[in-house]
Design brief:
Blueprint: H1 5-22, H2 25-38, E1 46-49, H3 55-58, H4 69-88, E2 97-100, E3 104-107, E4 144-147, H5 149-163, E5 168-171, H6 182-189, H7 191-200, H8 202-226, E6 264-267, H9 277-292, E7 297-300, H10 310-316, E8 320-325, H11 331-338, E9 343-346, H12 359-372, E10 377-382, H13 393-410
Length: 411
């Protein structure tokens, strides 16, 4: 886990470059824009890009220089930030800091998610359901929060020693507890089987969700009591895209120790894309809403179409601020429902940077959506991009086009 003298010089050089980028007045301006935007007073539509799966083409692992797995991941994260600052230049804010994910999570459910073996490096993954019969549910147990203090202390100490005088080392600001748990049930039981259960054995399925709701409350209680929770009021990732800047958090009675009501919450039910609005509520929102009530502001939705479910989301999700408008949601319906009351978190279809690649079509799509959503609080987020066909410049061009259209829409 140690660094040689030359490795340390190299990693410090990367950290220094991040600090230089973060000092650019460009980011100070965007911080203020995000504060206004998330408080529903936008200066213009905001533009974000998260290449996600396509990072293997933008910044391949084979280009990393360090061999140790821990430091290799640190190197990648620093180079990722530099790539953002030097090439992508969207509205993401780069701060003079390094984010460290704490080693913590829920354990002891009795049934754990299991994957089917695969030799594929990329592509779809298959889950191997372990709740094969309703009787298997009896094997589930009350979980507990696990925090590996030794690992956290060691990782923090190593980073601080390497470049803590250049960048602020901070913990990732995320609860790290699944408050959706629709996906958890589908992984344990199987997606198709869950949809069958909604009709064949709804009472039993309600028991499963009630159990998860009760015990997720317990996990959140343990997280608050542990003092491990961090404020989410900066450039942190919000929901399924967006940033956390807001003047409405932390809560007015905040005294220095973060609570759930000082942070952003998030839930989605994208596995339910094909179920009716009634089922979407009965086996999703109904159990997510009590958890989200504990947070200060909330985001909802991911890749599912919310066209016929927006009324349910708006009616039942408490303290709602950001709603995901996926490529499969009717933007006209969304614009009518959201108006200027919620963040219209629009996700263009990521195939636009794959094939066929047509910059004019990208511009036309963005312009049309911004015209339809005029008067809404719109952010454009290109994500779920699994490939750019090994042409990284497409990502940069998308950002340039989106920013030009955002300025045009602002008048």
């Amino acid at each position: 886990m140690g660094l040689t003298t030359s490795d340390k010089q190299y990693i410090r050089g990367l950290a220094q470059r991040v600090a230089e980028i973060a000092a650019d007045p460009y980011y100070a301006e965007r911080r203020e824009m995000w504060y206004d935007f998330n408080d529903l007073n936008p200066k213009r539509p905001m533009v974000l890009i998260f290449p996600e799966g396509a990072w293997s083409e933008l910044l391949p692992d084979s280009t990393m220089k360090l061999e140790d797995p821990f430091w290799r991941s640190v190197e990648w994260r620093l180079r990722y930030t530099i790539y953002r600052g030097e090439r992508l230049r969207d509205d993401n804010v780069i701060d003079p800091e390094f984010e460290l994910s704490p080693s913590r999570g829920a354990a002891g459910w009795g049934l754990e998610i299991r994957m089917k073996p695969t030799t594929a490096e990329r592509g779809a993954r298959a889950y191997d359901p372990v709740m094969k019969t309703p009787e298997d549910f009896a094997r589930m147990r009350r979980p507990h929060l696990v925090v590996n203090h030794d690992v956290n202390k060691r990782n923090y100490s190593q980073l601080y020693d390497a470049f803590g005088d250049i960048l602020h080392i901070r913990w990732k600001r995320s609860p790290g507890i699944n408050t959706s748990f629709v996906n958890f049930v589908c992984y344990l039981r199987g997606l198709e089987q869950v949809m069958v259960d909604m009709v064949d054995r709804p009472e039993w399925l309600h028991e499963v969700f009630a159990f998860l709701l009760e015990n997720t409350h317990v996990l959140l209680d343990e997280l608050e009591a542990s003092g491990q929770l961090e404020l989410m009021d900066g450039a942190d990732y919000a929901g399924s895209g967006g940033t956390c800047y807001t003047r409405q958090l932390p809560a007015k009675d905040y005294t220095g120790t973060a609570r759930l009501k000082d942070t952003w919450g998030f839930a989605e039910s994208q596995e339910y894309a094909l179920v009716s609005p009634h089922m979407y509520y009965e086996f999703g929102i109904k159990y997510q809403a009590p958890l989200l009530e504990r947070f200060g502001l909330n985001c909802y939705g991911c890749c599912e179409s919310l066209t016929d479910k927006l009324d349910l989301v708006i009616q039942h999700i408490p303290k709602l601020r950001r709603i995901s408008i996926s490529p499969w949601t009717d933007v006209r319906v969304a614009a009518e429902k959201l108006q200027d009351k919620y963040v219209f978190s629009w996700k263009p279809n990521p195939v636009c940077v794959s094939n066929p690649y047509d910059p004019q079509a990208i511009r036309a799509s963005i312009r049309k959506t911004l015209e339809i959503a005029r008067g809404c609080v719109v952010e454009m987020i290109l994500k779920d991009t699994h490939t750019c066909n090994n042409v990284p410049g497409r990502m940069e061009e998308w950002v340039r086009i989106a920013l030009e259209e955002a300025e045009r829409a602002a008048g």
